[in-house]
Amino acid sequence: MMRFTLRKTALAFTALTLMGSGAAWAAEDAVFTDAQKDAMGAVIKDYLMENPNVIFEAIEAQRAQQEADAKKQAEVKILEHIDYLTRADAPSVGNPNADVTVVEFFDYNCGYCKRALPDIQATIKDDENLRVVFKEMPILGPTSKTAALWALAAHKQGKYFDYHVALMEHRGPKEEAELEKLAKGLELDVEKMKEDIASGEIEKELDKVTEVGREIGVSGTPAFIVGKTFIPGYVGEDGLKDAIKAEREKNKE
Hints:
alpha+beta, 5-stranded mixed beta sheet, Glutaredoxin
């Protein structure tokens, strides 16, 4: 009888602990003799050895809860910064009066960001009521930042998306000589670009993007905001279109 009682107590304690319930602390604070503690430890070990899936289920439940909490926090921060994220003068492509806006955080040295460009181009082509806003988040080294500065300088001359595509498709180094060459190919005023970059205004914008991105939960690129929903990572053309469709359905409710 003693062994059976200890087994039930130990399993209850284990279940509560794995679920992260506050009640587990109450069980932990209960007074047990050394012999009872040893018996409970043996029962718990035997049970987990026989049922290892319990551990994996608990870990998965915890991971799911963490993702749900992160999603809620992201939504709060998106709402807090929505005017900045979608402002009319932000680098963008598509319909300025769209019913759904997608925001992409990206890095010019990010391979998955390069893969995302054709997805965005195809989605914009197929959807006349969509706007995509681009947020440079240069987190992959000095040349990422240099490329982002030049892209935002191109934005000041009304050729952001052309330069963005040229940079994403560029396979060589992203040193200033190469960036200047790309700019000349698009008939941009290179000297004016250099002046704008040197002014420090563009660099402040990059710092702002990084700050807001971190608050939302962007820890890598690419990352997307579809409407007010945060989607970390590469999703592909179909995934992007599905997210846009889901956002439109939510807006009907």
